[in-house]
Design a protein that fits this description.
two-stranded antiparallel sheet, EC 2.1.1.113, site-specific DNA-methyltransferase (cytosine-N4-specific) activity, restriction system
């Protein structure tokens, strides 16, 4: 196939003349459309090497920021979470829905102009960029590893387990660290279980396929955790599935806050010493002050936000300024009343 001689091969498109590129393009996009999304394939050896690299990462409690280029542990998630590209925005647009000839032509032209090599990952990024689709991110395992280590936590509650970054970061510190992850999406839950089996980290690991707002109400009040570490869904910014147990079931943002976010935070802070949330304000059909609401709910329930923040930045010197950039992902830390 033509695509096998082009994709992931250095300079294969850029070295073509403009005329030759335009001649080749229709056949290439036809093959790509028929093939479907270009997933990265990893062997078990690749996965175990990635896992060992994460476990060997030095933890320095004086460093609370990481660069976005530090992707250790990400291969594991990409292998097991192939439905990642099915996540849609509030208009119902996803990489999956954009994968057609017309959009692929536009993406490949952009890719050829801006990149020397048509890597599969870069074609997907080009497809997203040229169609105005926001970037869906995976929480960095190294960030979770740093946070859990910083607070010397022995038990971690993740009420929105997601793609597995926080699970991996926590368990990379050892099977003696307990991790409880709640994940309502069945595909994602199955992916988390698959990761845990491949890496043999099932000891001290509890995964629950239920919505956080339901599970926390039913959980024995005597069960406590050292640390909550999570990243909640961004209301209608990222739609993970159409299952009726998703938090998007609530009709508007205010209802979502009242019926999902606020009950979850209240039930979390009853059970933990430290509450850590990766969140920011965002805009889709209108602006949603999600970060402001997370801070407000914590403070109304007796928590104090620490000055300490954990950041991931595209900068080569992440977090070098106190001003948070739009490209940064920040995990905010709240001390709960049990520690005051």
């Amino acid at each position: 196939m033509l695509m096998n001689n082009i994709i992931n091969k250095r300079n294969t498109l850029r070295e073509l003349s403009d005329i030759d590129f335009e001649i080749l393009l229709p056949k290439l996009v036809t093959e790509l459309e028929t093939h479907g999304i270009l997933y990265e394939n990893y062997s078990q050896e690749d996965i175990l090497k990635d896992w060992e690299s994460l476990k060997k990462k030095q933890v320095d409690n004086n460093i609370t920021n990481i660069a976005a280029t530090n992707v250790v542990g990400m291969k594991i998630m990409r292998k097991h979470m192939k439905h990642f590209h099915e996540v849609s925005n509030y208009k119902g647009v996803s990489i999956y829905s954009l994968w057609n000839k017309q959009n692929l032509e536009k993406a490949l032209r952009f890719n050829r102009k801006n990149h020397s090599t048509p890597y599969a990952s870069e074609i997907i990024r080009s497809l997203s960029f040229t169609n105005g689709l926001g970037k869906v991110t995976m929480y960095r395992p190294l960030m979770a590893r740093n946070i859990v280590s910083y607070f010397n936590a022995k038990s971690v509650l993740d009420v929105c387990a997601g793609w597995g970054g926080r699970m991996l970061g926590t368990k990379s510190l050892g099977n003696n660290i307990l991790y409880t992850g709640l994940e309502p999406c069945k595909k994602t839950y199955d992916g988390l279980c698959s990761i845990s089996k491949e890496l043999n980290i099932e000891e001290g690991l509890q995964l629950i396929n239920e919505p956080a707002e339901k599970y926390l109400l039913e959980l024995d009040e005597n069960i406590k955790f050292d640390l909550a570490l999570t990243s909640p869904p961004y209301y209608n910014l990222e739609i993970y599935s159409s299952e009726n147990n998703q938090s998007l079931q609530y009709n508007d943002y205010t209802s979502w806050i009242n019926n999902f976010l606020e009950p979850v935070i209240k039930n979390v802070i009853k059970r933990v010493k430290i509450s850590c949330w990766s969140v920011k304000n965002f805009k889709t059909d209108k602006k949603y002050n999600l970060l402001d609401d997370v801070i407000r709910i914590h403070e109304e329930n007796g928590c104090i936000m620490m000055d300490k923040q954990f950041r991931m930045s595209n900068s080569s010197r992440p977090g070098s300024s106190n001003t948070i950039k739009k490209t940064e992902e920040v995990t905010y830390v709240f001390i709960t009343p049990t520690q005051l």
